Amino acid sequence: MSKAMLPPRWFVRAAWKVHRGLYNASKGRKGLSRPRGKKYGLLRLTVIGRRTGEPRSVILGYVEDGPNLVTLAMNGWGAPEPAWWLNLLAHPDAEAVLVDGQRPVRGRAAEGGERTRLWGRWQELDKNLDEYADRRPRTTAVVVLEPR
After folding, report:
1. What is the mean pLDDT of residues 67-93?
2. Is 112 exposed, middle or buried (0-12, 13-18, 19+ CB in 10 A)?
3. Is residue 109 a contact partner of residue 143, using CB atoms and an 8 Å limit?
4. CA distances from 13 to 29, 65, 85, 111 (A)
5. Concatenated DSSP letters of 88-139
């Protein structure tokens, strides 16, 4: 059985930095997308820093689940929890920017059957999802961003 390959951590970090740069340089006109078919969408999430109280923004992949937006707290499949997720746990109210505009949201972790169902949605998009997740020392949170 072959192991699913992940790019080196430095490459993942550089790719996201370039993506954020594209978004910022285009003043938000490029870098976001809606989910289509077997592709997740990209949104910009702004959370409040748990220590600084300052806004912090990140671009994340997402799928739609009715009115909710669903993402994974995966940090490029690295071991540490992503800072945006720790910030969201401390301050659940956030702002999501989608291709069609801004949306106030409240974040939470999916649990039980909801988590199983939503994880399954992500598995449809990435056949290596479970193998990547198994590399992390803790369970990857499935994050639900509900309209507020």
Report:
1. 93
2. exposed
3. yes
4. 22, 28, 17, 29
5. HHH--EEEEEETTEEEEEEEEE--HHHHHHHHHHHHHH-TTHHHHHHTSSSP
Residue pair 13/21 in contact (Cβ under 8 Å)? The answer is: no
Least confident of 12-21, 70-79, 94-103: 12-21
The rounded distance, in Å, linking the Cα atoms of 135 and 50 is 27
Residue of 64, 47, 49 lying closest to 98 (CA atoms): 64
Q: Are 117 and 109 in contact (CB under 8 A)?
A: no
Do 109 and 144 touch, CB atoms closer than 8 A?
yes
Cβ contact 86:76 at 8 Å: no
Which one, of 51, 142, 47, lies nearest residue 91 by Cα? 47
